[in-house]
Amino acid sequence: MEIKFDSVTKNYGPISAIKDLSFTVSQGDFVFITGPSGSGKSTIIKLILNQIKPTSGHILVNGKIPKTEKEIDDNRRKIGVIFQDFQMITDLTIEENIALNLDIVNFPQDQIPLAIDTAIKKMKLQNRRFLFPGQLSGGELQRACLARAIAISPQLILADEPTGNLDPVNAWNLVKYLKYENEKRGTTIIMTTHHLDILKSLDKKVIRLTKEN
Ligand code: ADP
Question: Does ligand 1 come within 6 angstroms of the Cβ of 133?
Answer without folding.
Answer: no
